[in-house]
């Protein structure tokens, strides 16, 4: 878990004691620069893209949760990314042994549509 100031891919980021990314650490504040949410978003997108390039094998299973299995060597990194993406609205997800519950249980709606998916091929499904 990262805490304090950490340099990742040449960029300094500040982390809370709980390991949550607080944003890019600037040496001196500069007006009109990306700070806060945009900086954290850029940091997380960079981490996910880096991870995506390094994962060699992955399996996907879609049932009552989205299950993703990949090499276990990435478990700590996946945990840190997931922690920084909180709160989770849609889900649930299981990535290796990490279970991510969510506010909205998306599988309930999916299970309602599941018997009709062949009929819906190519159609737009809208909820009002």
SSE arrangement, N to C: EEEHEEHEEEEHH
Shape estimate:
elongated
| Strand runs, count | 9
Parts with pLDDT < 50 across at least 5 consecutive residues: 28-34
N→C terminal distance? 42 Å
Helix content: 25-40%
- The total of helices stands at 4
Strand order of the largest sheet: 4-5-7-8
Radius of gyration: 18 Å
Q: Let me know the largest β-sheet.
A: 4 strands, mixed
Structural class: alpha/beta
Outline the structure in words.
With 128 residues, the chain is of the alpha/beta class. It has 4 helices and 9 strands. It has helices at 37-54, 75-84, 106-113, 117-120; strands at 4-8, 11-15, 21-24, 58-62, 66-70, 90-91, 93-95, 98-100, 104-105. The chain is elongated. It starts with a strand and ends in an 8-residue tail after the last helix. Residues 28-34 have low confidence and may be disordered.
List the helices and strands and how they pair.
Layout: E1 4-8, E2 11-15, E3 21-24, H1 37-54, E4 58-62, E5 66-70, H2 75-84, E6 90-91, E7 93-95, E8 98-100, E9 104-105, H3 106-113, H4 117-120
Helix pairs in contact: 1-2
Which short descriptors sum up this protein?
single chain; 128 residues; alpha/beta; four-stranded mixed β-sheet; three-stranded antiparallel β-sheet; 9 strands; 27% strand; elongated
Summarize the structure.
With 128 residues, this protein is an alpha/beta fold. Helices cover 31% and strands 27% of the residues.
């Amino acid at each position: 878990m990262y805490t304090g100031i950490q340099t990742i891919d040449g960029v300094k980021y500040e982390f809370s004691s709980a390991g949550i990314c607080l944003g890019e650490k600037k040496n001196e504040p500069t007006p009109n620069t990306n700070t806060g949410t945009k900086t954290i978003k850029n940091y997380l997108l960079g981490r996910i893209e880096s991870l995506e390039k390094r994962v060699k094998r992955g399996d996907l299973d879609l049932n009552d949760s989205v299950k993703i299995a990949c090499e276990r060597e990435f478990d700590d990194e996946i945990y840190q990314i997931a922690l920084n993406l909180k709160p989770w609205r849609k889900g649930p997800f299981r990535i290796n042994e990490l279970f991510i519950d969510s506010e909205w249980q998306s599988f309930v709606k999916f299970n309602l549509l599941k018997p009709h998916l062949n009929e819906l091929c190519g159609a737009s499904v809208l909820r009002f």
